[in-house]
Amino acid sequence: MTVTLDHPPVGERPAEAARLVTGVLDIESGAKGRLRGPDLLPLPADPQLPAALIRRHGLRKGDLVDAVQGAQHTVTGIARVNGRAPGELRGRRGFHDLTPLHPRERLRFEHPAAGLTGRVADLIAPVGKGQRGL
């Protein structure tokens, strides 16, 4: 005799459908992380990334992550990181290990119509193209 149930047994809930979520990774203490929204403000509904997923895929704070969210705001899988497949992140170097490119061409503020202001700026604080100047 076969018994067919129309309703799930008591104490069991139907599984929630997995959905794709996108956010900026914020790694908290304890190596776990959360995906923050575009405004980067912490919210109670932010999806949580387990530390094992962060280590497995080599994720870093500030990465833009497309992930599969399962039950109770927990991420169960990673779809894309910074627009790339997770497997492409393995060889990425840290920011401090990158080679800096120093400016080779000077950006001049001096202009005949600008008067003396541009000339003074060139003398006091010269800026090169490609340089991060404030």
Put the structure in a nutshell.
The protein has 134 residues and is of the alpha+beta class. Helices cover 12% and strands 24% of the residues.
What does this structure look like?
By secondary structure, this protein is an alpha+beta fold. It is built from two helices and seven strands. The chain folds into two domains: about 20-85, Nucleic acid-binding proteins (OB fold (Dihydrolipoamide Acetyltransferase, E2P), Beta Barrel), CATH 2.40.50.140; about 105-134, no CATH class. The strands form two sheets. A five-stranded antiparallel sheet has the order 3-2-1-4-5. Strands 6-7 form a two-stranded antiparallel ribbon. β4 and β5 (about 75-80) form a beta hairpin.
